[in-house]
Write a structure and sequence with these properties.
Number of strands: 7
Structural class: alpha+beta
Oligomer: single chain
Helix content: 40-55%
Number of helices: 8
Distance between the termini: 60 Å
Strand content: 5-15%
Strand order of the largest sheet: 5-6-7
Radius of gyration: 25 Å
Shape: flat
Largest sheet: 3 strands, antiparallel
Length: 256
Amino acid sequence: MLLYIERWLKAPVQLEDGTLEPREKGSPQGSVVSPLLANLFLHYTFDRWMAKHHPDIPFERFADDILCHCGSEQQARGLKETLERRFAECGLELHPDKTHIVYCKDDDRRGHFPNEKFDYLGYTFRARRSKNKWGKHFVNFTPGVSNRATKAIRRKIRDWQLGCRIDRWIDDLVRMFNPVIRGWMNYYGRYYKSALYPTLRYLNRLLARWAMAKYKRLRRHGRQAEHWVRKVSLRDPALFAHWSMLAGHGWTGRAG
């Protein structure tokens, strides 16, 4: 097995012009085998090593993104130094710009630290105002969709070019885009869903612009187009996947 992996890593890369470029080590950028090999390598370099040497420190790892939960700043700094040595022994290094010690601030931890938030798997983890089942507000360190993820979602929505799809009916738009919208909601709406509301309202504004482009009576009447979209959503709140999530949260806004 090791022989096959070595041959895979050292196999030459064929360029677009057909020439072969020799390689001594490593897999090509974007290669499908890279995540697999990284997972195998880190399973022994990190996962099993942590279980043996730091069984009291829980962690999560997704590919090469790792979170370690320490009980104090002293423990976190000690672990960081230990991991730097461990990774160096294995021919790796911690990314200097992506490796941080973060203070998880909430109602029980009210101190201050240079880093009090972090991004992980499309979520931003930080202190947020929350409400318990009895209606009492408190500060909790919890995830919500990250700014980077919302920018990517908005960019994807713009790529749909709704304003150019005046040959389509609203039912057609639902069939085309609902699976994607539902996927966003299922993933990013799982925690602190209100962080996703502004992006979903943005989608509604673009639906209003589509209505302005499609129907002559709504052209140059942004507010009427908003009311039209809202009327449709009230009549059939399950039509677009995100309408039920926004119900009662003041999602309408100007289409300018």
